[in-house]
Each structure stands twice: as structure tokens, then as C-alpha cells.
Design a protein that fits this description.
This protein is about 60% helix and about 0% strand. By secondary structure, the protein is mainly alpha-helical. About 40% of the residues are buried.
């Protein structure tokens, strides 16, 4: 069953768009930076290795890992914040990429995925909010629906998934981005390796992964719990704090932030206004709505149409649409000669 889910995710249009979506660093012309598509592969590899040792369902693990971030809008978590502000202004509730991943494969590009896969998407973030946890084996489909509604009110809420496979992905997501983001920042000369508070994690992403994997397996073997030892947990929390202060909020990476925030607002307003005025002659229709299901068209309000369209854009397509629609272009007039 989960093998079918995995195949559908990999062959989806949303999965194809991963490869031009920001992980952390955007608008920097450097080929070796981690993109969203590479990140989900890292999560899949790490969680599958753990799952194999623990005898869990590897297809379920991979399906959750590879699909969990399809809901991310352009420009990563920063773009998510800007889009969430728009959503709240329009009365749609807060935007959450975890919720959007479920929404995308349920109603926008419906794949008929298993409940356990959707639950894994919704619960994948917040892996450092508690040191240990256990799967919520009693979770029902109605509880999942209630948790999705909760995300629109409290997007940062820490949700516990139904399956052990999803819990591994939740842990692996954090482990997979911390060290890799540090390596990217070192390559860009934003930080130096000697300044990183590695602690028991060694001195590189490779040693971090090895130490974390050993710690997770040891804890499970000793206690039957999913999570980290106290020493590992405190070390990872310290490293995460370092990443936010020295990488994610680095001023050199935020020089275009105000422009991107304004771009989100302008593009949303432009697309919504054109849809209300031109309907099937609008870009929203020709590039997005024309291929949606009748159920989606009937049950979705106009503002949500635009949010779903923008959230699915790659960084490059977002900038292309922005330029074409909001930046004056050269006008070609037939028969006019510009030479003197």
C-alpha cells in the first residue's frame, strides 16, 4: 500500500517542483547549495537507515520523507511567513507548509494517499520541542482533521503522529538540516568551522549524522522511546540556536527580504484582482485553475485559489511571473523605426 503512495508522490508535479525551491539560502548563485529537493532526500536516507535497523516499514518512511515539504512556498520559511500574513488578512487562518503538503496531495493534485502518510506530513516539524516521544497509536482520521484545523490557528503546534515511521521522519528532519545548513554556510564563508558549537557531534555534518544515528538507536534499545539522550538533546538545541543566530538570520542573507515581502503582497493582489475581473482569461485560470477538479473549484474561495497557486510556485517561476506582471516591459510597435 505505501509503495503505491511512494510511487505517486515521486511522479507528481509537486515533487518535480522541489528542485527549484529554497531550503535556506535563496538568490545566491552557488551550485552546491542544498535545495528543498535535496533536503527531502537527506531526510529519507537518514530515516530509512534508522527504520531498517528497527524493522519498520521503509516504504511508509520514504513516502512521508519525500513528500513532507511539498507545501513549502517560494523562498522557504521566510516566504511561508509572508504568505501566512496574507492568509490571516484574508480570513483564511495561518499558513502552514505542513498543512499545505496535506492539502496539496488531497485536493490540489489529489493522489489518494494513505491516512498514515498525510498524518506524517502534518506532524513532521517540531522535532526539537520534546526530547522523547511515542507514536499516538489511537489517532483517528477525525483527530487528524482536527489537528489540521489547529494548524490554521497555531501553526507552530507540536503534533505527535500515529506511526513510529512518522516519528523517525520527524527526528530525521531536524538532524538532516542542522549539519547540512552549517556546511552550506561554511562554503559561503558566512561562518567558520571552528566557531560551530559541535560538542559531542564531532566537527562536520558527517560526524553529526553518525553521532545522532547512534544516539537515537541506543535510546530506543534502552528505553523503547523515540528521541535523544539528554546530552544529545542539549547539544542539538545549542546547535539549532547557533544556526538561527549565525545563519538563518545572517544579515548577508536578508538583504532582499523586504523586497520579497512586498513581492508576495503585490503578486497576491495582482492575481486576485485579475481573477475577479477576467476569470477564465486570467493567468490564475490558464496556469492553475483550468486543471483542477470540479470539487476543488466549487469548494474553494478565490483568495485560497491564489494562495494555493503561489504556494506551489518554484522560486524561479515566482520571480518570472512577478517580472512579467508588475515590471514594465519593452513595447514593440510594428512599423516604427528607431534609427535616426
Amino acid at each position: 500500500m505505501y509503495e503505491r503512495d511512494l510511487e505517486r508522490i515521486i511522479h507528481s508535479n509537486a515533487y518535480a517542483r522541489y528542485f527549484d525551491k529554497t531550503q535556506v539560502v535563496y538568490l545566491v548563485p552557488y551550485d552546491h547549495l542544498t535545495r528543498r529537493g535535496l533536503h527531502v532526500q537527506f531526510v529519507s536516507m537518514f530515516s530509512r537507515m534508522l527504520g531498517k535497523r528497527l524493522g519498520l516499514n521503509l516504504d511508509l518512511i520514504e513516502a512521508i520523507a519525500l513528500g513532507h515539504d511539498v507545501g513549502h512556498p517560494p523562498f522557504g520559511h521566510e516566504g511561508e511567513g509572508y504568505l501566512s500574513s496574507i492568509c490571516k488578512e484574508m480570513g483564511l487562518g495561518a499558513f502552514s507548509h505542513a498543512n499545505q503538503s496535506c492539502r496539496l496531495f488531497e485536493v490540489i493534485e489529489p493522489l489518494d494517499l494513505s491516512f498514515e502518510v498525510h498524518d506524517g506530513f502534518l506532524c513532521h516539524d517540531g522535532g526539537m520541542k520534546s526530547r522523547v516521544s511515542q507514536p499516538n497509536l489511537d489517532k483517528t482520521a477525525q483527530m487528524h482533521i482536527d489537528e489540521r484545523k489547529l494548524r490554521t490557528v497555531t501553526p507552530e503546534v507540536d503534533l505527535i503522529p500515529k506511526t513510529a515511521e512518522a516519528l523517525l521522519v520527524k527526528l530525521s528532519d531536524t538532524v538532516s538540516y542542522l549539519g547540512r545548513d552549517i556546511e552550506d554556510a561554511i562554503a559561503l564563508r558566512l561562518i567558520e568551522r571552528k566557531d560551530v558549537p559541535w560538542g559531542m557531534l564531532g566537527s562536520s555534518n558527517h560526524t553529526l549524522l553518525e553521532a545522532a544515528r547512534h544516539d537515537i538507536l541506543t535510546l530506543y534499545g534502552d528505553t523503547g522511546q523515540f528521541g535523544f539522550s539528554e546530552e544529545m538533546y542539549q547539544t542539538l538545541k545549542k546547535l539549532r540556536k547557533f544556526n538561527f543566530e549565525c545563519i538563518y538570520w545572517h544579515p548577508k542573507l536578508k538583504t532582499e527580504s523586504k523586497k520579497i515581502e512586498q513581492a508576495y503582497k503585490l503578486l497576491f493582489e495582482n492575481l486576485l484582482t485579475e481573477w475577479l475581473e477576467k476569470r477564465e482569461e486570467s493567468l490564475l485560470w490558464t496556469a492553475f485553475l483550468h486543471s483542477r477538479t470540479q470539487e476543488y473549484l466549487v469548494n474553494t474561495v478565490a483568495a485560497q485559489y491564489v494562495v494555493d497557486f503561489i504556494a506551489g510556485m518554484t522560486d524561479r517561476y515566482f520571480l518570472k511571473v512577478l517580472q512579467e506582471r508588475l515590471i514594465p516591459q519593452k513595447i514593440e510597435v510594428t512599423g516604427v523605426h528607431t534609427s535616426h
